[in-house]
From TrEMBL:
Region of interest (Disordered), residue spans: 161-182
Name the record gives this protein: GMC family oxidoreductase
InterPro entries in UniProt: FAD/NAD-bd_sf (IPR036188), GMC_OxRdtase_N (IPR000172), GMC_OxRtase_C (IPR007867)
Family membership: Belongs to the GMC oxidoreductase family.
Keyword flag Flavoprotein: yes
Keyword Transport in record: no
Organism, as annotated: Brevibacillus choshinensis
Keywords: FAD, Flavoprotein, Oxidoreductase
Record-linked Pfam families: GMC_oxred_C, GMC_oxred_N
Domain Glucose-methanol-choline oxidoreductase C-terminal: 442-552
Length: 572
């Protein structure tokens, strides 16, 4: 028998960016909120003087223990899915702050095209441009509707940047100036302008200068140490939930965080949730937390999995195309870049920051004509200086032996003479790409693992090849003596790291027939359940997802307050 606790106004499942934003907004308006986090507590002091590449970057200190819970993967329904036993394609964070602690800090806004992708594509090219089986759909809202929430997230986080000349209109400039421009970034900008492209500084959650946000949270400027991705920031310069929104919620006295609390079910009667059931992983005790409102704010896979295990919402069926929970899983197309080797220039590539870079969007979204191309959408093209740590980076030209005298000579020669230009491509949904519960494999509690069914399509291969050529053109214009273009995209391989930008599974839209949540992220099938995160994305854009996820979190908080004050019903 589970121990039953007193009811609260709101219980949130997962205390990362989504959970932190929701908690800070609701507690300031008087609601009592409990945040359940399955990992441990974290604070900035944990990372003082801890520049340990082996511990964090290669042994995954901040990540989920795959021996206790993982995912299973298959490329198509006719093959058996197998568990991911070691980290490869993506990294699953755990602990207070979630992935918001170990991210790089790239904070883009999705393009206006993204939110109306089907309508805009049909309007420009006709419906025959959309391949059979591709399930792109409009998101149920426009960029202009979401713009004020983008602005709110950026001001809270202190995003450093400059206006994207090809992006959506902004109501205000970024709250802090762009980061420093390095010699190689200036080379990129000059080369791009010669081709009449439109470079701009990458929008960064690594502060360019000291900043105090509207909530009164003060943070120091980035020191360009190069230890961002897979690390917590010892300076607090990288915006993360632990140093921004969570302290605001705690200050109200209305937010209780319970770490080591693994939520296993959403409890519900009919179409309304009554609370959640979780296990205290330190004692094994089962605990029921009743609540008027339940908000799922965990990672993509966990949001989808928890709904499926709780029998809440209609599971997606790829055979019929009916159902919504698990639908439109997307990833990211990270192939499509180029490497340039320089004989007469040297660069300091070991200093940097997670979101230090320069980018262009001339080939992103529908900013270019797709009429004669065999793909939709595109990618941002960027040159970043994130800090190449010495264990994991050793660039040598193709054809170099993997050991011996020539390998050593080329390693020394090119360690400071190599630049990369990469393309981060959109991933569009297909009827046969989805998430469901694995019928065979279970976690340490005996619950089924989430199963991914996904592979790259011809759409992705065409996109990768096209963008790789553009990256190669830039490097040649930048003066590289040798350029290696990586435009070949084979079958999806879950083994090498690519991107932690998983999206979909609980997607938003304007109809319960084709989406799981409305544009306030409120479930159509359970009015007092809200689902926050990139799980709501109907596809993945040619950008990192955090900025758009943060904006939707603020909009969701507004929707929850509307729901609370009205006493029920769907929020409009």
């Amino acid at each position: 028998m589970a121990k039953k606790l007193p009811k609260v106004d709101v219980v949130i499942v997962g205390v990362g960016w989504g959970g932190g934003v929701i908690a800070s907004e609701l507690t300031r308006q008087g609601l009592n909120v409990v945040g359940l986090e399955r990992g441990k507590e974290r604070k900035t002091e944990d990372y003082f003087m801890v520049h340990d590449e082996l511990r964090y970057a290669l042994r995954y200190e901040l990540m989920q223990d795959l021996s206790k819970e993982t995912i299973t993967f298959r490329s198509k329904t006719s093959v058996r899915a197998l568990p991911m036993r070691s980290y490869g394609s993506f990294l699953l964070g755990t602990g207070l702050g979630g992935s918001g602690v170990h991210w790089n800090g790239h904070t883009f806004r999705f393009l206006p095209y993204d939110f109306e992708i089907r309508s805009k594509t049909v309007e420009r090219y006709g419906d025959k441009k959309i391949p059979d089986g591709m399930t792109i759909q409009d998101w149920g809202m426009t960029y202009d509707q979401l713009e004020p929430y983008f602005d709110k997230f950026e001001r809270m986080a202190g995003i450093s940047g400059e206006e994207n000349p090809l992006g959506g209109k902004r109501s205000q400039p970024y709250p802090t100036p762009p980061m420093k421009s390095t010699p190689s970034m200036k080379m990129f900008a000059e080369a791009a302008k010669k081709k009449n492209w439109h470079p701009y500084m990458l929008p960064s959650a690594n502060l360019s200068q000291a900043y105090t946000n509207p909530d009164g949270i003060s943070r120091a400027a980035c020191q360009y140490c190069g230890y961002c991705e897979r690390f917590g920031c010892e300076y607090g310069a990288k915006a993360d939930p632990v140093v921004t929104v969570i302290p605001v919620a705690q200050k109200t006295g209305k937010f209780e965080i319970r770490t080591h609390s693994h939520v296993r079910r959403i409890l519900h009667t009919g179409k309304k949730a009554t609370g959640v059931l979780y296990t205290d992983v330190t004692t094994g005790e089962e605990i029921e937390q009743p609540a008027d409102i339940v908000v799922l704010t965990s990672y993509v896979f966990n949001n989808t999995r928890l709904l499926l295990m709780s029998n809440l919402g209609r599971p997606y069926d790829p055979n019929t195309g009916k159902g919504v929970i698990g639908k439109n899983y997307c990833y990211q197309v990270m192939r499509g870049g180029a490497t340039g080797f320089f004989e007469d220039k040297e660069f300091n590539y070991y200093a940097g920051a997670g979101a230090l870079g320069i980018v262009l969007d001339d080939f992103n979204g529908d900013n270019f004509d797709h009429k004669d191309l065999k793909f939709l959408h595109g990618a941002n093209i960027a040159h970043t200086m994130t800090g190449l740590r010495p264990i994991a980076n050793n660039p040598v030209p193709q054809g170099t032996p993997s050991w011996g005298k020539e390998f050593k000579a080329n390693s020394l020669k090119y360690m400071n003479r190599t630049l990369t230009v990469g393309a981060q491509g959109a991933s569009l949904p297909w009827r046969h790409h989805f998430l469901d519960l694995d019928p065979t494999y279970k976690d340490v509690f005996g619950d089924p693992l989430i199963r991914i069914t996904f592979d790259f399509e011809e759409q992705d291969r065409q996109l990768a090849a096209y963008l790789a050529d553009r990256c190669g053109e830039l490097l040649k214009e930048m003066g590289a003596s040798k350029v290696e273009v990586n435009g070949k995209l084979g079958p999806y391989d879950i083994t090498p790291y690519q991107s932690t930008h998983n999206t979909g599974g609980v997607i938003m839209g304007s109809s319960p027939d084709t989406s799981a949540v409305n544009n306030y992220l409120q479930m159509w099938d359970a009015e007092n359940v809200f689902v926050v995160g990139a799980s709501s994305f109907a596809h993945n854009s040619g950008y990192n997802p955090t900025g758009t996820m943060g904006a939707l979190s603020y909009r969701c908080a507004e929707g929850i307050m509307k729901y609370h004050k009205s006493g029920g019903g769907m929020v409009v």
